[in-house]
Amino acid sequence: MAEKKYIVVHYHEIALKGKNRAFFEKALLSNIERQAHGLYDSASRISGRIVLCADASQKDALAERLRYVFGIHHIEIGTRAGATMEAIQEEARRVFPEIKKVPFRVTASRAEKNHPFTSQDVEREVGAVIHEEFGFPVSLKNPELVLSIEIVEGHAYLLTERIQGPGGLPVGVSGKVVVLLSAGFDSPIAALYMMKRGCVPALVHFHSYPYTSKDSLENVRHMRDALSRYAPSSLALLEVPLSDIQQYVVTKAPSALRIVMYRRWMLWMAERVARMQKAHALVTGDSIGQVASQTLENIETISEIATLPILRPLAGLDKEEIIERAKQYGTYDISKLPYEDCCSLFVEGSPRTKTTIEEIKKIEDPIRKELEEKAAYALSQI
C-alpha cells in the first residue's frame, strides 16, 4: 500500500465569517477540488480546517497547486495517528528517523478538550521521545523544525512541513468584475488583488493590432494563463480592437487630450462587456500620479463616462511595490517583456495631466453618435 500524507489546510479570514463560514468553506473546498484535481484521494472539512489525504508521491505537486488557491492562509503536511498519547508517540518514532537531525520544538493543539491529557502534556511527552530516543536537540525559541500536532475528531495529525498560501477569500464568493488588462506590471496585479477578495475577473484587453505587434497580444494571452493559475477555471480573455476609435479621435482632438479620450471609450466599452457578463464593477491598474492619465483630475475626467463602480486596488502603491507584487505572484517575467501600449498610439508630445470633463465633452458631444457606433462595432469583433 502506498504511503499516505495528510495536508491540513488552514484559513484565517474565512474563520471570522460567523454564521456564513460554511458558505466560504464550501467555496474553498470546491476551488481546491478544481485546482488540484486528481492529486489527492479524499478531502473533508473538520473543525475549522480542511484535511486532504494523498499518496506521498503526489505530496509536492499537490502542495504546489495549493500555493495558488486564494482563501488558504497556509498548509501543513505530515502523517496521521490515533488520538492517544501512545499512538502519537509511536507515530513520532516511525517518522523521525527519516528526518534530518536539527533543533526542534513541538507545538500541540486539541480541537476537543475531552482527552485525558493537555496540549502541554503532548508537547512534553512527544518532545521527550524525539530528543531522548533520536538525539534531536531542543530549541524552543529558534527551532529549525517545528512538529505541529493537531488533535481533532479522533485523530492526531503530526505535521512537519508548513507552506504559506496566498490568503484572502475563495475566488467566486464576491461575484464578477471586468478587468482592463494589459501585459504590463500594473493591471495583472490589480486582477490578482480582486481575485484575492473573492472576485472572478473577466479580462478585457484593448489592442491596436496591426498598428502594434502581434507579440503584445501573445504577451497578454500568456498573462491570462498566469492569472488563471489562481482561479478554479481558465479566465475569460476578450480582445477588443481600439484602432478605429483611435484613428477617428486623431481627426477630432488635439494630441494632448487623446489618451484621456481613448481611456474614456475603453471604459465605455468595458462597461458594456460588464453588463453582458453580469459583472458588478470595472477594475483598472491605475496608481495615482504614476502617469499622465492617472492624475486625480484625469481619473475624474475618464471615470465620468461610466456608471458602474470603478475599482483601483493599486491606487496607493508605487511602481516598486507593484513590481515586488509581480515577483511574488509570478507575473514579473511576462510583464518585463517589451510590449507596445495602445494608448500611446497616434499621440505626439506630452499628454495633458489636468483635463476637465467640460473640455472633453465639448469635443465628444458633437461626435458622440459616431464614437458609440465605432465602439459598438469594436465590441462586435470580440
UniProtKB/TrEMBL annotation:
It catalyses: [ThiS sulfur-carrier protein]-C-terminal Gly-Gly-AMP + S-sulfanyl-L-cysteinyl-[cysteine desulfurase] + AH2 = [ThiS sulfur-carrier protein]-C-terminal-Gly-aminoethanethioate + L-cysteinyl-[cysteine desulfurase] + A + AMP + 2 H(+); [ThiI sulfur-carrier protein]-S-sulfanyl-L-cysteine + a uridine in tRNA + 2 reduced [2Fe-2S]-[ferredoxin] + ATP + H(+) = [ThiI sulfur-carrier protein]-L-cysteine + a 4-thiouridine in tRNA + 2 oxidized [2Fe-2S]-[ferredoxin] + AMP + diphosphate. This is Probable tRNA sulfurtransferase. It is an enzyme of class 2 (transferase). Catalyzes the ATP-dependent transfer of a sulfur to tRNA to produce 4-thiouridine in position 8 of tRNAs, which functions as a near-UV photosensor. Also catalyzes the transfer of sulfur to the sulfur carrier protein ThiS, forming ThiS-thiocarboxylate. This is a step in the synthesis of thiazole, in the thiamine biosynthesis pathway. The sulfur is donated as persulfide by IscS. InterPro entries: Rossmann-like_a/b/a_fold, ThiI_AANH, ThiI_fer, ThiI_N, THUMP_dom, THUMP_ThiI, tRNA_STrfase, tRNA_sulfurtransferase_ThiI. Residues 60-162 form the THUMP domain. PROSITE patterns: THUMP. One of its GO terms (biological process) is thiazole biosynthetic process. It is found in: Cytoplasm. The keyword tRNA-binding applies. Pathway: Cofactor biosynthesis; thiamine diphosphate biosynthesis. The lineage of its organism: Bacteria, Candidatus Niyogiibacteriota. It holds the Pfam family THUMP. GO terms for cellular component: cytosol. Gene3D superfamilies: 3.30.2130.30, HUPs. Keywords: ATP-binding, Cytoplasm, Nucleotide-binding, RNA-binding, Thiamine biosynthesis, Transferase, tRNA-binding. It comes from the Bacteria. It comes from Candidatus Niyogibacteria bacterium CG10_big_fil_rev_8_21_14_0_10_46_36. ATP binds at residues 180-181, 205-206, 263, 285, 294. Its EC number is 2.8.1.4.
